[in-house]
Amino acid sequence: MQSKPFIFRWQLAVVAISLFSLMSCSGNYGEKVTFSTNTGEVYYKGDGVTEADAKAVGEFLEKQGYFSKDGNRTSVQISKKDKTIEARFVVNDKKLATVKNADASFEIIGALMSKEVFKNEPVDVIYTDDKFADKKTIAFNPKVLESANTIAEIKDMQKTDWNNNTLYYSDNIKTEDINVLMDYLKDKKFFLADGSVDIIVNQSDNGDVRIRFPIKNSFNTPEGMQEIDNFASQLKKDLFQNVTLNFEVLDEAMQTVKSFTYN
Questions:
Q1: Which residue range is the domain that position 119 belongs to?
Q2: Per-residue pLDDT tens for 73-94?
Q3: Which of 150, 180, 204 is the last residue of a domain?
Q4: What is the pTM of this model?
């Protein structure tokens, strides 16, 4: 199975957008809370949002590595309209244009912020200039919560790397078993020396194994699914003879495309 043509490494959403949001603003845009030695700043303005909300948003972004570490200030503003939180991000248009699937990444940011900060209140993400003038709104999309949950999940998982490939795994899996799986993926060319693939492995209490990985959207064809089925069937025979194996294919937004179950 040659992974390089169709399997890709996803970018965690905040990591991706931090590349082009390194802009700040100045002016009266509400009260301000600063983070990461004053390089990050979150403004809160109007009824419905508080200093505590701004601190929670800043801590959320800080945890994701969003705020700059090179001394540049990064500005975000939160407000509330009707029953929706509006999170405004100052963005650099030129850098924004270079990032693939930027809107999808911001969709995930809104979903994650809704879940982790605002107790599932909807969050719209808005691109702005350096005066917080709106340029584009990325509306809250609850359908990407699956992607957001996956991002949140892997941050707490163990991981092992080979070159630029990463295998994330749950705490209840033995290191020696992961080493066997890693060697198998390398031997079968699922992980390539010059590749960059992420794969997630979980094991349930009864021993069943769930494996997830993303593919390029262009590979989501009957022929592509057949090739994946062939690989997963062989993996089941070689390594997971005594347990159920769930092999789950994700798209570029980390949402499930197709699941294969082998008992």
A1: 13-150
A2: 788 999 999 999 999 998 888 8
A3: 150
A4: 0.64
